[in-house]
């Protein structure tokens, strides 16, 4: 698979480490691909999901969106949103939420582009192609960069790993639901159909 670095109207000269502008141009020239970029300069091409993972992902993101709209204290984002974390990494959580005051503090340009912040809440859904240790490292990175709550949902093992700053990850075995309190006030995610 080739990664386009030129289009009929523009070209990108890639030099490592990639600048924010180079990364944005690379993404724009390859809209069919999804990239992440680590704080150490590693470019990651994200694999597409399988059918069940895609369906689970949309169910999880839509439940977060319904709650966020009703609650009004922040905005929910889907798996195609790239955030630039304080450590320089560019990450795409499967679902995320940002408190409204933090979002409104960004410039319009940052809101339209790659928001330079770590979401307050991040959710990662393990797919069969994901290594659990990679996702656990990613969750630790989110927390180190300002996330206040994280859920790593593993339908393969039927486990939810709950991450909070300053605490060891909590492992919940096949829970029927998981609470977002106090970060996601009033949000409870029901998981029965995610385990099926």
Key terms:
24% strand, 30% helix, alpha+beta, Nuclease_put_TT1808, disordered N terminus, 196 residues, two-stranded antiparallel ribbon, tt1808, chain A
What does this structure look like?
The protein is of the alpha+beta class. The chain has one domain (49-195): tt1808, chain A. 30% of the residues lie in helices and 24% in strands. It has six helices and twelve strands. The protein has helices at residues 20-29, 51-71, 100-104, 108-112, 132-144, 192-195; strands at 34-37, 43-46, 74-77, 83-84, 90-91, 95-99, 121-125, 149-154, 159-163, 170-173, 177-179, 188-190. It has a six-stranded mixed β-sheet with strand order 3-6-7-8-9-10, sandwiched between helices. It has a two-stranded antiparallel ribbon with strand order 1-2. Strands 4-5 form a two-stranded antiparallel ribbon. The longest helix is centred in the N-terminal third of the chain and has 21 residues, at 51-71. The two termini are 34 Å apart. The model is unreliable at 1-12 (pLDDT under 50).
